[in-house]
Each structure stands twice: as C-alpha cells, then as structure tokens.
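Narrative of activities, Objective 1.

The group set out to show that a structural description can be obtained from nothing but a protein's sequence at a throughput compatible with the screening campaign. Below is one input-output pair from the validation batch, recorded exactly as produced.
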Amino acid sequence: MSYNHLTATTRFVEVDGDKFAYRRWGNATSDQPPMLLLQHFRGGMDHWDPLMTDGLAEGREVILYNGRGIASSGGKPRTRIEDMADDAAAFVRALGLQQIDLLGFSLGGFQALDLTWRHPTLVRKLMLLGTGPRGGNPDMEQRVLTTAVNPVPDFEDFLYLFFGRSAQAEQAAKAFWERRHQRKDQDPPSSQEAGIAQIEANILYLPRLSEDDPFAYLRGIHHPTFILNGVNDVMVPTINSFYMARNMPNAQLFIYPDAGHAAQFQYPQRFLRHAVQFLSE
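Output recorded for this entry:
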C-alpha cells in the first residue's frame, strides 16, 4: 500500500525507555537518504504542510517525528536544545539509519543545527527554515510573546506568526490552514509542560558561546546547507539567516518576498522546486 501525509501510520520506537512517535513514507527505492523533519515550538507531526511533505516524499523517504514528551511521544520534555538534538540522533540510530538529510523549522532548526554540529557524520545535507544560530539576534516582535503561547493557536495566530501581510499572503495562509487540517486522525496537542520546557530551551539557546567570535562554531559545519526565510520574520528575525549564510562554508540562502516565519508554507511550490534541486544536485 502506498502511503502519504494523510494516511501514513503513526508508529513508535523506544529510545532510552521512552516511546517516540513517528511517521515514515515515500520513495524507499531512491538513492537519496531519508529526510527527517524537526518541527517548530509545540508543533507535532500534523503541523506540517501535506503539500510540502508529500512533495519531498516523491524523491526520498520522509520521516516526521515528535521529540521526547511532545504531542504523542512519551517521556519528560527536554529543556535544552542539545538534549533535543541528541534525542533526535538517538532516534535516527534506533531506526537503523546510517545517514539522513535533515530539515528543521524554527525551534526544530535550532535542533537540526545542533544535531549536525554534534553528530556530523549522521547528516548528509541540512535545511534550516525560519531559524537561527546560537548567539543570534533574539529581537522578536513583542506580540509574538503573547500570541505563540496561546493554549490552542487559531488561524489568526498562525497568520500573524507565520505569513506575510498582503492579501495574497492571507490567501496562502488560508490554503495552508485547510491543507493542514485534512488528516482525520491528528496528533494530540503538546502539553503545557512541553511548551514551558521548550521556552526554557529557547532562552538558554540565545546567549553567545563567545563574545569575540560568536559564530566560530558555524564555520566548522561544512555540510551543504539550504537556508530559507521570509523577508520579515517576526519570530526569528531574518538577519539570523544571513548570519548563518555568512559563516557556514557551504550554505546558500533564499529569502522569499512578502513572507514571514514560514515562507515554505506560503510558497510551497516554489520551496519544493528549490528544495528538490538542492537535495539532488
């Protein structure tokens, strides 16, 4: 049976005594490694865009994953990005995989960057969406602080946090919102405990490792890297994408117009063209 985003079965694998939830589908005959996707603050497997995940799955296997204590995964939520990264690496190894391509969005991008830094042989190519490095610019808009923590974020919250400000951007947001809710057996929402843990992890991720050369560690990451952001990201300021592109030796940067934090959701077809080219070249 051929699966897709809407029908892929939720499976579990045990990592250090806790069961981690995941879904896996796509082109298993491809010569490209599977791609692991790491999600944003409080996000679970059903916060991805089916158009994006199924598009990526045409050329490789795609693996969606909930970290420890997130949504349908068991265990106590982590309060450090480095622990989240190590959990994701342990999850990959528990599946018996030797190497992956890795995509991280927002808080998932923090984890993806740290995973690649801490476990370099596990990653072939790296994709960083709407995210930033340790020691980057933390100056998010003040409204983010009250909107992102809403117990059940609604469409207006996602519109403000993720998309551009034009009428066209709002239409793209509505289309994404409809696609995102198509799956019938959706992941449960993440707990309040998970949200608090991730806020702590985010705060502790912000300080610079060194005031003299805060991005020195980035220059040691030589993996081919795809960096994407919207021209006006209210959550992780767009300048952070430039910091990564300037310091990562094999990085390329995409900035989409009239877009915010989730440029890949606003322009899914454009993103897929760029992503598939990057992954296959």
